[in-house]
Amino acid sequence: MTPSVEEFVTRYGGIYEHSPWVAEAAAAKVSAADDVERIAAVMAECVDTAPDERQLELIRAHPDLAGRAQVAGELTSDSTSEQASAGLDQCTPGEFDRFQELNRRYHEKFGFPFVLAVRGRGRAEILACFEKRLGNDSATEFKTAIAEIHKIARLRLQAAENADG
Fold this sequence. Notes:
There is one protein chain. The chain has nine helices and no strands. It is an all-alpha fold. It has two domains: 5-56, no CATH class; 63-164, Oxo-4-hydroxy-4-carboxy-5-ureidoimidazoline decarboxylase (UraD-like, Orthogonal Bundle), CATH 1.10.3330.10. Helix 3 (36-48) runs antiparallel to helix 9 (138-164), helix 4 packs across helix 9 (138-164) and helix 7 (93-110) runs parallel beside helix 8 (123-133). The chain is globular. 29% of the residues are buried.
């Protein structure tokens, strides 16, 4: 049996940051018997086939790493957990300043926030990824951001499944 669009969006609407449209698009393509991998693949396909403007909106829905939203306590619960798991809530003043500088440079160059699946990574590794990706061209970085968003979504789906199971 296929869940209703409303049921699917209620359960999975937050998997892609502030973008319930992904769950809405995927709802008719999955059944209640589908596993996390199938749901992740269908949701990823919905993003990958969306117009570039819609994908850009999705990238821009993500917060800066160790950014103002974190300091102000304005992150989603998933983003808060993910950033805390990487120690981004424990930055030294120097690390915090470095993140702010890299966030600024990244936004200036690409027009959207740096997106990285940070769970399981440390601050030094994240900063190194940040530095490296600043050397990318816009098309490469757009594709990389979408790929990282898919990784985040898969991790969120797995966490939700583990919490339910």
